[in-house]
Design brief:
- The protein is α+β, with helices and mostly antiparallel strands.
- It has helices spanning 20-30, 49-53, 79-89, 109-119, 140-149, 180-188, 200-217; strands at residues 34-39, 42-48, 73-74, 93-97, 103-108, 128-133, 154-162, 167-174, 192-197.
- The protein folds into two domains: 3-117, CBS-domain (Roll); 128-217, 2-Layer Sandwich (VC0802-like), CATH 3.30.2130.10.
- It is built from seven helices and nine strands, in the order H-E-E-H-E-H-E-E-H-E-H-E-E-H-E-H.
- Strands 7-8-6-9 form a four-stranded antiparallel sheet, covered by helices on one side. The protein has a three-stranded mixed sheet with strand order 3-4-5. Strands 1-2 form a two-stranded antiparallel ribbon.
- Strand 7 and strand 8 form a beta hairpin.
Length: 219
Amino acid sequence: MISEQLISPIVPTLIPSDTGDKALSLMDESNLEQLPVVADEKYMGLVQENDLLDMADPDAKLDAAEFSYRPAVLASGHPYDALRLAHQQNLSIVPVVDSENTYVGAITRNDLLKYITEKSGLDNPGGIIVLEIDPRNYSLTEIARICESEEVLLISTQIFSNRATGKLEITLKTNRTNLGGIVAALERYNYKVLEVFGDSSQDEGMIDRYNLLMNYLNM
């Protein structure tokens, strides 16, 4: 999938001759905090609600302003580019352009949220395990092998580098809610399990029994 495929048909555009009042009205109607300005099919920049509210004369035309704020992604790029830009710059929409800066459309924050939810498997039933691992010891192949040995399928994985600890936090989305067995297996291989989200009543009981056994064996 490319960014162009996520373009929303409901994002209105502004032209330089539009006024600040008209831009604010369109933002209110579309429930968006930014809107793109387009002239002769070329992307000029993004106007923000806060800037419009600060205008001395709301009836002034937008072409009186300099559009130095031009966040955008290429239509042929990966949706992760749009997701990263939306996060970094707190955008309600991400403008999409081609290699000639022709405005192609815009992706809304909700479209990006839907995309990441569907592609990460978060909308599928199953539990989640979060591991803490030293970067040099990280092996997705080994983690997958341990999961397979417990007949647990990994639907998706996410990696977060915790700068405070210097460790990697690996989030595993699985196809099972009863995760006691896989948690015990991971701990046998010296993986530190930070969090478990699944069938808590069954998981906690199994984990407690496993911890009691480990304590007994270490006596």
